[in-house]
């Protein structure tokens, strides 16, 4: 399976390269090359001593106990766009930032060939930005959105930024706006930490397919997307094998093993978004319903709302968000009556199973205020203060300094300062 999927991934990139060569061969016009980039230098301070604040679940470190962290939001990206003809263009984007597995392959965020047979119809193939939510395609370009970072409750759990595959976008011009309909399909993988940066992580391989509708109407934007993710591997094989192995002593363990396994399981995202901007006031909100048949991807609801006002080059805003699971963690109780050391081994296995289920749960809410100052062309400084309330078994967006199971709700104040530039 891995060989097939990896070949599939590289086939997409090879298709991109072949398409690039074809575009170069057929063009009779001078090729137009354009280089650009973006960067963010960010500092973040979190006052909680037990939970490390991170931008999303692909990071293994972050600020805690009032330490200053600069890697959480800092990044630099460069982009090379080439227009080969009226029909063909290519784009390559590289981004250097904090990742759990920071290899060159992950740094290639985009590498695609676009074919435009007619105005309003685009075919793209290669490595593409994921288009699951409103900010997905530019969530790393800090200058493009008002906050220091996309809201953690909503974008913190969506850790894959790109996939290797294809998409088709059709634009419909309306009387007062435009409607874009996009179909996409591809494959990707991501490395996730299981604890801190020194602890081995896991790699998840998945296929993604979906459709999105984006309507821009005067000052309004509306969006709906449906995405179906098929997971191709089991990221907790040692645990599920151990549970299956004790099934003769603990029949329920087989059920836990099946529910925990991620192989051949799915995740479905239903996302709704709305935005308003009249160049004075602006507002944006998104809501997502996540469904999965693996207990390691708990069914949950995600939401955020932000409202702001501009005063010349300065804008101020408020922001709030929450994420809440739909179900409680099941009680994992080992069978009684077995002699030592079997009883102790079953108890340890029950604890690890319970900790694995609690470790991925997300249940928190936040509210905050911030300000942005566009002090020069293509340059902005932002200051943001947020208060987080995290449930004792819902801290999956954070890196924990304490073992799971302390049964203590947590609070955290996070202060962020960032400078965004385009070049």
Characterization of this structure:
With 423 residues, the chain is α+β, with helices and mostly antiparallel strands. The protein contains 6 helices and 19 strands. Strands 1-4-5-6-7-8-9-10-11-12-13-14-15-16-17-19 form a 16-stranded antiparallel beta barrel. A two-stranded antiparallel ribbon has the order 2-18. β6 (108-118) and β7 (121-129) form a beta hairpin. α4 packs antiparallel against α5. It starts with a helix and ends with a strand. Residues 1-7 have low confidence and may be disordered.
Which key features would you list for this structure?
423 residues, alpha+beta, two-stranded antiparallel ribbon, 19 strands
Radius of gyration: 23 Å
Shape: globular
Structural class: alpha+beta
Strand content: over 45%
Name the helicity range: 10-25%
Main pleated-sheet profile: 16 strands, antiparallel, barrel
The string of secondary-structure elements, in order, is HEEEEEHEEHEEEEHHEEEEHEEEE
First-to-last CA distance: 42 Å
Average pLDDT rating? 91
Write out the strand line-up for the largest beta sheet, numbering strands in chain order: 1-4-5-6-7-8-9-10-11-12-13-14-15-16-17-19
Total number of helical segments?
A: 6
Instruction: Tell me the number of strands.
Output: 19
What are the low-pLDDT stretches, counting only 5+ consecutive residues below 50? 1-7
């Amino acid at each position: 399976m891995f060989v097939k999927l990896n070949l599939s991934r590289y086939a997409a990139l090879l298709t991109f390269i072949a398409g690039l060569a074809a575009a170069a061969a057929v063009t009779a016009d001078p090729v137009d090359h354009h280089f650009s980039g973006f960067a963010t230098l960010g500092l973040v301070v979190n006052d909680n001593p037990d939970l490390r604040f991170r931008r999303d679940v692909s990071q293994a470190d972050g600020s805690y106990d009032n330490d200053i962290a600069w890697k959480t939001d800092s990044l630099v990206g460069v982009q090379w766009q080439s227009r080969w003809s009226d029909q063909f263009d290519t784009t390559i984007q590289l981004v250097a930032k904090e990742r759990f597995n920071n290899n060159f392959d992950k740094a290639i965020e985009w590498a695609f060939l676009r074919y435009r047979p007619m105005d309003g119809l685009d075919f793209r193939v290669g490595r593409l930005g994921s288009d699951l939510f409103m900010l997905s395609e530019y969530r790393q370009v800090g200058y493009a959105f008002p906050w220091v970072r996309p809201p953690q409750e909503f974008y913190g759990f969506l850790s894959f930024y790109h996939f290797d595959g294809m998409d088709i976008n059709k634009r419909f011009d309306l009387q007062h706006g435009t409607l874009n309909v996009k179909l996409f399909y591809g494959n990707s993988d991501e490395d996730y930490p299981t604890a801190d940066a020194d602890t081995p992580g896991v790699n998840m391989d998945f296929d993604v397919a979906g459709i999105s509708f984006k309507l821009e109407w005067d000052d309004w934007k509306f969006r709906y997307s449906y995405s179906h993710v098929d997971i191709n591997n089991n990221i907790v094989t040692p645990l599920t094998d151990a549970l299956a192995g004790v099934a003769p002593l603990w029949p329920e363990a087989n059920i836990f093993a099946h529910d925990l396994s991620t192989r051949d399981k799915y995740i479905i995202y239903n996302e709704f978004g709305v935005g308003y901007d009249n160049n004075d006031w602006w507002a944006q909100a998104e809501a997502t319903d996540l469904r999965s048949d693996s207990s390691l991807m708990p069914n949950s609801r995600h939401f955020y709302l932000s409202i702001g006002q501009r005063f010349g080059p300065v804008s101020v805003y408020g922001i709030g968000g929450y994420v809440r699971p739909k179900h409680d963690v099941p009680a994992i109780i080992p069978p009684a009556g077995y002699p030592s050391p079997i009883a102790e081994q079953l108890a340890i296995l029950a604890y690890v199973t319970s900790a694995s289920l609690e470790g991925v749960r997300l249940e928190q809410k936040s509210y905050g205020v911030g300000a942005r100052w566009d002090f020069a062309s293509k340059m902005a400084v932002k200051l943001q203060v947020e208060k987080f309330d995290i449930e004792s078994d819902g801290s999956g967006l954070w890196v924990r300094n304490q073992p799971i199971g302390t049964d203590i709700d947590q609070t955290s104040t996070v202060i962020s300062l960032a400078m965004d530039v385009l070049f």
